[in-house]
Amino acid sequence: MHPAKSVIFFTTASGAGYGMMIWLAVLAALGMLPQETVFGLLVFGLAFALIVGGLLSSTFHLGRPERAWRAMSQWRTSWLSREGLAAIIGFMPLGLFAVVTIFGIADMALGVVFGLVGAAMALLTLYCTAMIYASLRTIPAWHNGWTVAGYLVLGPMNGAVILAFLLAAFGFEEAAGAMRTIAGVMVIIGLTVKTFYWKHLATAPATSTAGSATGLGHLGKVEMTGSPHDQNNYLLREMGFRIARKHARKLGRIAIMLGFWVPLACLLVAGIFLDGGLPAAGIALLFVAVVACQVGITAERWLFFAEAKHAVTLYYGEQAV
């Protein structure tokens, strides 16, 4: 599948934003969320910016972006519609959570309720996003449980790494320590999920072949002697994208190293520096973890689309998907 930049930004940015909201709600429930105005404005502002920016960028891939709102009318059958509705509904409790936390207009116990409801809606939105891809039987690389697990883990993982840096930068030691631990655990879980996802891609048997697609498989091996089209077209551009195996391996190593190993190492060493009275070094390492995580997750998401083969490519020379 063609790795459109707008969709890659949508899934990474909104995932990180929702991940931040989820952990902010968890910290609030544990009584560890700082109620400091400047910090609140920055962290909630960043989370909302990532969510809104990601959601808006997803419309850039549409032929008629101004009609995107119509997709929400198909919530009975469409995961895309359900995702849009879940995102819109989630803005209300998340917004109230932010207002109560930043401005203290109500008891924080009420803010915790808003936060937990908003976190549940954030997880539901991430699940709906994952199901947009996991529900596609015509793309076997996505039609499995590891796709859903990846979206539910990588967004919160990314958000936890960002929050660990911001909390440390503002000097909230207790909350920063807890978030470093959470981020480290999430990075390990994320690495595990992606390892099993890539293992599944490498070992899963083909679900369709040129023979099964044409109904001629019983006669022997089926090979296309010519393309259905003599010029490039939409199907080839969007669903026939190919990436060289050596390039895929290289990007895979980048995704694993920068998306998981570097952030994990930075989180561990930053904790030593912060506990040892070297806050500047610790904060710098946490910033490196944030930057590395963004680059690594972007590479992972690019591969997520580029390595996926649509069944329609069987009619354009692909032997199996």
UniProtKB/TrEMBL annotation:
Transmembrane segments: 7-33, 39-63, 84-106, 112-136, 148-172, 178-197, 251-274, 280-299
Documented EC number(s): 1.8.5.3
Keyword annotations from UniProtKB, A to Z: Membrane, Oxidoreductase, Transmembrane, Transmembrane helix
UniProt-recorded Gene Ontology molecular function terms: oxidoreductase activity
Pfam families on file: DmsC
Protein's recorded name: Dimethyl sulfoxide reductase anchor subunit
Species annotation: Qipengyuania polymorpha
